[in-house]
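Structure catalogue
Derive tokens from sequence
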Amino acid sequence: MEPYHNLLKLALRSLLAAAVRLRDTTFKFFTAVADTLFSLYFASCSMLPCTVDLDADSSSAATTVHFWIPGHRKSTRPALVLIHGFGANSRWQFYYQVRHLSKHFNLYVPDLLFFGRSYSENPDRSIEFQAGCVAAGLRKLGLERYSVVGLSYGGYVAYRMAEVDVAAVEKVVIISSGIHYTEEQKEEQMRRIGGEGIRDLLLPKKPGDVRKMIKLALYKSRRYNLAPDFVLQGFIKETLLLWGEKDNVFPLHFAYQLQSYLGATARVEVLKDTGHGANIDSPDEVNRLITWFVSSAKS
């Protein structure tokens, strides 16, 4: 299995490096091949695809959440949920994490609604709806307690999950997510990183958009209404904030601003020479810190 796994990893890295050079005519072919390789890679890490129908027995709008779940759940391991950000589905964003973390946790990796294979006929696009659907899917999968990691936009969803499923969420890890920044700060950041084109940047549809997203999000690896109003402190007992020193989307001062808001239970870890895409820029350090924090005894 190890040679097979390494071959897949090499193929994925080569494809990602080639992404920024593709023309529009080959972009769809590239994404189809990459999706297949990512699925094979997750399977090589003993992960299985699974879809959960949330409204199968009701007359409400149909909602289906797609997960990657552990092939062999072990009772001695804690459960960990990875919530991806904008830009692509969960496989594209967490392929640097899945192998390491699946060795230490019962790992659950959902596609947020309207990404990957998760969808809903409900017109609701709110963070609350995303969080509620992921939490409901996890309950249907039999999870009673778990920790959650949220990347960028996924950080908003992770914190809302701690509100809607407070009895289930044990610890939260936030990676590069501008939670609790002001409207003025949000407007300034939007002007600085993309202005009116921010939708195209976060949801790339062609190679030029991919190039822009990679340039903005990553520091080392360049070759390849979001502000919530809810009160967080009462829901989270322990929080780890992972932040890239060179984050161009949510600069480092947002980490300390959020830490000050959350209080003494929040800890900031700064990743040197790392951009917004910390999971790709510094995967080994991200994996080490997640494993240490989630596995450590509760304070």
